[in-house]
Amino acid sequence: MKKTILILLLCSLLTGCPGGKRAPKTRSTFINGDYLCFSINKNDVLDYYVIYSSENLKSPIIKASDNINLNVSYPNTCINIKWKYGYSYTVSYGLNNKDYHHEFFIDNNGMLTHTGEF
């Protein structure tokens, strides 16, 4: 009986703590040259964004919203950003109080390849 309780206790410890913050879902952004839109739907509200690059791993953030609660809709959900070719990028953003991310690579010819799952 003691072994059964001990095994159940160990199994519950190995499953982790429930109720934590969920991982962000993968959601594509709209990228056209140096123009990035988090959403083109006027009903969507952008909460925040952070853009990471593989160019400088010591300081990977290349652009971020100054305010955690932007509360803006299209066309203010779009920004201009100068991409450097040959690097991977991750865009983390909040839209309608949900967290999302988009991972992609821009090769030396400027071709964009999605690297995250969709």
Textual characterization of the structure:
The protein has 118 residues and is mainly beta. The chain contains one helix and nine strands, in the order αβββββββββ. The protein has one helix at 2-14, and strands at 25-26, 30-32, 35-37, 46-53, 61-64, 78-80, 87-95, 98-106, 112-114. The strands form two sheets. Strands 1, 4, 5, 7, 8 and 9 form a six-stranded mixed sheet that branches. A hairpin with a 2-residue loop joins strand 7 (87-95) and strand 8 (98-106). The protein is globular and about 35 Å long. The N and C termini lie far apart (47 Å). The mean pLDDT is 84.
Mean pLDDT value:
84
CA radius of gyration is: 19 Å
Tell me the helix content.
10-25%
Encode the helix/strand succession as letters.
HEEEEEEEEE
Could you name the ranges where pLDDT drops below 50 across 5 or more consecutive residues? none
Structural class: mainly beta
Strand content: 35-45%
Short structural summary:
The chain has one helix at 2-14, and strands at residues 25-26, 30-32, 35-37, 46-53, 61-64, 78-80, 87-95, 98-106, 112-114. With 118 residues, the protein is mainly beta.
Features:
single chain; about 120 residues; mainly beta; six-stranded mixed β-sheet; three-stranded antiparallel β-sheet; about 35% strand; globular
